[in-house]
Structures are given as C-alpha cells and as structure tokens.
Amino acid sequence: MTGLGRATAEDEERKVAVFIKTLNGKGLDVSIRSNINLYEFEFEVRNKIKEYLQRGTVSVLVQVEAKKPKGNVVNPDALVSTFQFFKDLAQRSGFNLSDDMAFYASLRYVEMAEEELEEETKALIIQALTDALKEVVKSREEEGAKLKEDLLSRLRIIREHLKNILENKDSILERAKKRVLEKAKELNLPEGNPTVLNEISLILSKMDIEEEVTRFKVHLERFEGLLDAQGEVGRKLEFLLQEMHREINTLGNKMPELSQWVVEIKTEVDRLKQQVANIE
Q1: pTM more than 0.70
Q2: Sheet holding 14-23: strands in order across?
C-alpha cells in the first residue's frame, strides 16, 4: 500500500531528517539512502522499519546535517599510506592519476574511514525514523479505509451476479431435461424408460452447481470477515480469491448458459486481486 512519511529530530549539534515512501509489494523490500555512512547501524534501522511495515517496497532517505562545522583531524600516517596506495594502484592499472587527484581521493577515503556514527546521532535517527513510520502507517490506514469501501462495493456486485445465477439455474436445468424428453419422444421412448431417466439424471448431475455456489458463498463471507480483522490478512485474501476464481470457473464449465454472469464475476474477482495486492 502506498504511504508517505516525513519527520525530523535535532539537538544542539545536529539535525536529522527522515523521508519514507512506500509502494505496493507482496513482500517487504527496503532500500535505504543516506548522506552519511550508516555502517552496521543500518541493521537497527531495518529492524525498526519491520516493526511498523510488513509488506511493500519501502524507500528511506536519512539526512544528517551538522549545525556547527566540525574540524576533523586526519591521521597523517594513514593519509600518506593511502595516497601511496592509490598511486601504486593507478600505475599497475595503467591509469594516469595526478598527485592532486590521488591526494583528494586519499583524503576522502581516510575521512570516511575515521568517521564514527555517534550515539547521539543514532538516537536522533531512530527518533525521526519512528515518527516518520507512524506517519506512513497513518497515511496507509486512511488509504486502507477507502480501499475497504471499494472492496465491499465489488463484493456487492459479485453477490448480485450470483443472485442472477441462482435465479436462472433451475430454468436452465428444466430446459436440459426437456431436450432429453423431446429426443426420447423422437425415438418413441416413454418418459419412464430407464434409459431416458438415466440420461436425465446424468445430465442434471453434470450440471449441478450447488457445491460450487455453496463454497463460493463461504469464501465471500470469509473474505468480508477478514476486511475487519487485525494483523496481516493480505495473503489470506489472495488465497480466498484464488478459490473463488476456481469455483466460478468450474461453475461456468458445468453450466455455460450462465456465462454472462460468470464472466462478470471473474472480472470483479480479478479487480479484487489487484486491490488486495495493496493490503498487508
């Protein structure tokens, strides 16, 4: 489900801003970008995200801004050895690397290597991340309420088509029985002839859709019940829709005369599948 969240946290020395965007997805796929190197702290960030989100493609941007310029002291020995490393690497690789370029690369490498994420910064990141996640959850809940209304409206459409199926199935069975009797009459066979009765019984048995209708209704009730349930229900809803599709497909094969309503129900089930992909 789509959602947006933004939050900031700051102290006297630094300000942290976290931006989160979520898109539809069957699993949880998290990507994190930052203007600082999070190192192993990224593991804690991902765990915090999992506390609030279970499904979706989640993009997180963490920005840390120092309020006061920080004078980093670079280890001169590390700088010299790194500079020589870049020069030797360039020479072995056949690259033309100037001293200025090698020095700049060495300086950035050493600065990044010596940076350590302070505990105060970590705490601010978690604070801003948590607030942004709460905002994401809120926006997703608002979208979820609208989504639920759409799903319920489609269930009502399906029930209306199912009602038409039930209202027409008996007349279709009666016409099938009538065709057998007309054929028997052409062959001079009485209605009570065992062959005629067996043929009628066989045809009516093949066209019996009571089990499919009953199971389909049960799936509809369970689906609607899950819309009010707490926790992760997305996969359960997807399973029920698969079962609905199978039942209505079997029903249509047994009684092709009902195809106009069967096709409509299949269409709504497919639309439900698309929407359910947004639900955790």
Answers
A1: no
A2: 3-10, 14-23, 56-66, 28-34
